[in-house]
Amino acid sequence: MNVSHRFAALAAAGLTLTVAATSQVFVLPNAASASVASVSQVQQAAPSVAGGAAGAQSASAFANKSLATKNRIYRTGRLTDVNCRTGSLPSGSTAAYKRFLTRVTNCLNTAWGSQFRKARLPFSKPRLRIITRKVNTPCGKWSAGADGYYCSSNRTMYMLITRKQLRQPFPLGIARLMAHEYGHHVQQVSKIWSYYWTARNRAGSSQRLALSRRSELQAECFSGAFMRTLRDGRHFSDQQWNYTVNWFRQNGHKAWPQNDHGRGPTQAKWMTRGYNSGSPGACNTWAASARNTT
Ligand SMILES: [Zn+2]
How far apart are CA 66 and CA 64, in angstroms? Predict the structure, then answer.
């Protein structure tokens, strides 16, 4: 049994997880319209309720495209290497798996907290909820096949540990998934998502897909920027990273019957942009041309 074989098996295991990973947020393969509609109502409800007397002003602010295209988070440079110590992830230990998820989340909190400080934007951490079976969230039902989920109305990242992953955990895949979900939290806290959800609620179906792609591709790029901080040989090899990107290039779109996450090559491109630059400034999918967000 040679090394590359073993590696391929490992990667495949991890990437099953990652596919689900990109998936979960609001873009639900089958029940798409129902789930998406309920989620967007939740999304809209939050600002308008909070708006109160300042409602009119809030409404125009929330619709402001520059929140997405010119956000201050883009001008914060590279994510700081927070010397993340994730520890090992042996198979079969739920306790070790939970510890790993918690540690990666702490690293994400530190790295992104520092970016928000640089941007002089208020920041708050997401909650992490580790689950071993599917749950309903305030954003709707758990989508089949998803292993992670970010719900913006309670700002919670849900991470599902399945028996299969427990048997054969792939740390790179799991970290990438968490960083993607965290990317949605960054979009939420920086108010990029205020523009997204407002625009989305007004859009027709093909425009909705186009907006969804910009949102998902950005989360993936933010994920890449964080993954770059782990590139020190302790967490994963260049070979593993390249394998992961190639896997997405070929398979990243397959879980989505509608093109709401972008084509495989487009996903791979934004992952790589984030990773190569290490900076959220490389992740401005909202100002990118339509042909770069296909
Ligand atoms: Zn996503």
Answer: 5
**Short-list 229, 223, 235, 257, CA closest to 18:** 223
Task: Report how far residue 29's alpha carbon sits from residue 40's, in angstroms, rounded to the nearest whole number.
Answer: 16
Residue whose C-alpha is closest to residue 36's, from 191, 189, 200, 160: 200
pLDDT in tens, 209-234: 999 999 999 999 999 999 999 998 78
Name, in order, each residue with C-beta under 8 angstroms of 276's C-beta and a sequence gap of 6 or more.
Answer: 224, 228, 282
Q: Which residues have beta carbons under 5 A from ligand 1 (an ion)?
A: 25, 216, 219
CB neighbours (10 Å) of residue 232? 10
Separation of CA 155 and ligand 1 centre (Å): 14
Could you tell me the distance, in angstroms and rounded to a whole number, from the CA of residue 53 to the centre of ligand 1?
Answer: 33
* CB atoms closer than 10 angstroms to residue 166: 16
The amino acid that residue 67 corresponds to is L
Sheet of 156-160, strands arranged across: 127-131, 156-160, 148-151
Cα 180 to ligand 1 centroid, rounded to whole Å: 6
Termini Cα distance of the chain: 39
Kindly give the distance from the C-alpha atom of residue 214 to the centroid of ligand 1, in angstroms, as a whole number: 10
User: What is the pTM assigned to this prediction?
Assistant: 0.81
What pLDDT is attached to residue 29? 27
Q: What is the pLDDT of residues 228-259, one digit of tens each?
A: 999 987 889 999 999 999 999 999 988 888 89
The list of the chain residues with pLDDT below 50 reads 1-58, 61-62
- Provide the residue range defining the domain that includes 70: 3-292
Number of domains forming the structure of the chain = 1
